[in-house]
Amino acid sequence: MNQEKDKNNQAFAEDSFEPWEQSNPIPLAFLVVLVSLLLIALLYYANSYYPAPTSESSVKLDKPAKLAALNLPAAPKVVTQGNAVVWSCASCHGLAGEGSGQTPALAGLTVDYLQKQLTDFKELTRDNNSMRYVVEHSSDQELEAAIHYYAQLERQPVNMTYLGGFASKGEQLAKQGKPEAGAPPCSSCHAPNLAQVFPSLEGQNPDYIYSQLEAFKHGKRTNDAVMPNNVQGLTSEEMRDVAEYYHQQIQKSD
Ligand code: HEC
Ligand code: HEC
Question: Which PANTHER family did the record assign (predicted)?
Answer without folding.
Answer: CBB3-TYPE CYTOCHROME C OXIDASE SUBUNIT FIXP, CYTOCHROME C4
